[in-house]
Structure formats: structure tokens, C-alpha cells
Amino acid sequence: MERTFLAIKPDGVQRRLVGEIIRRFETKGFTLIALKFQKVSRELAEQHYAVHRERPFFPSLVEFITSGPVVAMVWEGDGVIASARKIIGATNPLNSEPGTIRGDFGINVGRNLIHGSDAPETAQYEIALWFKDEELVAWQPQLTPWLH
Ligand code: ABT
Ligand code: MG
């Protein structure tokens, strides 16, 4: 079963959007596997965004992501990596479709509310970076087949 890493960024927490954002993945039918609320160290931020190390926006990106607590999560389900990216919307909220999280709640590319892994390899890297094995809770939702 596929897993992805999602994190509600400091702006999502500050704007009281935690419940609204989690609701969208829960009601879609994906399964929550891990969740924690934490401040992000500079070291973790730099590792998380290592692919952007050389980009001009890297220092401000690290500054932002370490500026306040985030909600780090692992979600599971068929096709969850690509589906979560669709639910989140395009990187720049001004280009995100209405109905997506960024399309509904954002206007600034540097304040785009939530992170989602963009591929199976990044999902694996990010889950291992943010969570210890024992923090991942494998469980079988008891869903009647006609509900999902
Ligand atoms: P993340 O889920 O945060 O990784 O965003 P996404 O994958 O949609 O977009 P990428 B390209 O990975 O952007 C990472 C963060 O960098 C910010 N950014 C990006 C800028 O501020 N300016 C830019 O020109 C680009 C391309 C947006 C993302 N996060 N924030 N906050
Ligand atoms: Mg990205």
C-alpha cells in the first residue's frame, strides 16, 4: 500500500486551518498512519528541502518552515502520492484550481500552507526523515465496501 508524507506548514497552523486540511484527506478515504505537532529545526528543514539548496529562495524557505510549529503526517492509500498533490493544488496558490487546498486558501507561493511528497522516492525519503519506524501505526480501517 502506498504512503506519502504531508506537512501542514507554519502558515496553515497560524491560520487555524489544521482541521480543515486534515478533513480533506480523511473524507477522501485515505488512512492516517502517523501524526505529530512539532517545531522544525534548521537541520531538518535543510534536509527536507535539500533539492532546493542552490535555489535563490532557499534561505527564505528554511526561515519560513522553521518559523513556527508544523503538523507532520503520513497518509496511506492506493495512489495517495499523486492524489494528495491534486488535493493540495499547484505550487503557486494563484495558479491552484479552486477546490484545492492552496486554491481555496492561499495567494502566496512562499506561504502555500501544506507540503506533499512529489514521487515514491521522495515519499520514502521524507517519511524516514521525519518519523521513526515505531511512530508509524499500521492498521486496517474497518470500512464496509460500499463506503469507499
Ligand atoms: P512543497 O510541497 O513545499 O515541496 O511545494 P511544491 O512541491 O508544490 O513546490 P516546490 B517547487 O517543491 O517548492 C518548494 C517550496 O519553495 C517555495 N518556492 C518555490 C518559492 O518560494 N519560490 C519559487 O519560485 C518556487 C519554485 C514553495 C514551496 N514552499 N513553500 N513554502
Ligand atoms: Mg516539493
Termini separation comes to 16 Å
H/E element order = EHHEHHEHHEH
Which percent band covers the strand fraction?
15-25%
Return the average pLDDT rounded to an integer: 96
- Looking at the overall shape, the CATH architecture is 2-Layer Sandwich
- CATH fold-level label: Alpha-Beta Plaits
How many discrete structural domains? 1
- Structural class, from helix and strand content? alpha+beta
- Tell me the number of strands: 4
Radius of gyration: 15 Å
Low-confidence regions: none
Shape: globular
Largest sheet: 4 strands, antiparallel
Q: Number of helix segments?
A: 7
Bound molecules: 3'-azido-3'-deoxy-thymidine-5'-alpha borano triphosphate, magnesium ion
User: Can you tell me the CATH class?
Assistant: Alpha Beta
CATH superfamily: Nucleoside diphosphate kinase-like domain
Helix content: 25-40%
Strand order of the largest sheet: 2-3-1-4
Structural summary, described in words:
This protein is of the alpha+beta class. It has one domain (about 5-145): Alpha-Beta Plaits (2-Layer Sandwich), CATH 3.30.70. About 40% of the residues lie in helices and about 15% in strands. The chain has 7 helices and 4 strands. It has helices at about 10-15, 20-30, 40-50, 60-65, 80-90, 100-105, 120-130; strands at about 5-10, 30-40, 70-75, 115. Strands 2-3-1-4 form a 4-stranded antiparallel sheet. The longest helix is centred in the first third of the chain and has 11 residues, at about 20-30. The mean pLDDT is about 95. The site of 3'-azido-3'-deoxy-thymidine-5'-alpha borano triphosphate has 12 residues, from helix 4 and strand 4.
